[in-house]
Write a structure and sequence with these properties.
There is one protein chain. This protein is mainly α and 201 residues long. The chain is 58% helix and 0% strand. It is globular and about 45 Å long.
Length: 201
């Protein structure tokens, strides 16, 4: 399924830039890290462990640096739309993006919620995840990888928002497959899947 309205050239550019940036060595000039340090508190305020658990922004723990770099470039280039993120990185240099993605990649994986999950909802979510082969791309343990985000213990409201955005084709990028998957999901399905991945132990 081709990603409608998305430039294949831009997608190739994002992958090429991210790959060459990592190969060249993240955060080589010291000034890049200094510049990112001035923004880090803002990142932590929204994405950190102390942020509201029900927020519809992602927790960053466990995200691979390469994947993070792809997303940051997409935000800067306007290929992924989010008013706050687009504004945050609009003036970031390539070195700033390298510094930010390396920092994200250094964060530990998200911990499971402390509350005991509803087993019936978990069973229903597991069945949906198997039906739609979520672990084919996101890994057997839903921990993501070099070009895929982790789903395990991600914030429930963020996963729900992401699925809704894919279904409405508000978010496409290089993830056209997710548009196809989400288009087959009902609102209840999306809620069940979001609950399931958020509460994996």
């Amino acid at each position: 399924m081709a990603p409608s309205g998305v430039s294949a050239t831009m997608n190739k550019r994002l992958v090429t830039f991210a790959g060459s940036a990592l190969c060249a060595g993240l955060v080589t000039p010291a000034i890049a890290q200094d510049q990112f340090e001035t923004m880090k508190d803002s990142c932590i305020a929204c994405h950190g462990e102390e942020a509201e658990a029900e927020a519809d922004v992602p927790a960053l723990g466990g995200i691979d640096a390469y994947y993070a770099l792809l997303q940051l470039v997409a935000f800067r280039e306007g290929q992924r739309e989010n008013e706050i993120m687009n504004g945050m990185v609009a003036d970031f240099s390539d070195n700033d993006l390298r510094a930010a993605s390396e920092w994200i990649g250094s964060l530990p994986p998200q911990a499971a919620p402390e509350d005991t999950p509803d087993q019936a909802r978990m069973d229903a979510g597991a069945a949906l995840a198997e039906e739609h082969r979520c672990n084919t791309c996101h890994g057997a343990d839903y921990l993501g990888g070099h070009q895929m985000p982790p789903l395990r213990n991600q914030r429930e409201q963020y996963v729900l928002k992401a699925l809704g955005d894919y279904k409405a084709e508000r978010r496409i990028g290089d993830r056209a497959a997710m548009v196809e998957v989400a288009s087959a999901l009902s609102d209840e399905d999306m809620q069940t899947l979001s609950y399931f991945v958020a509460h994996l132990e």
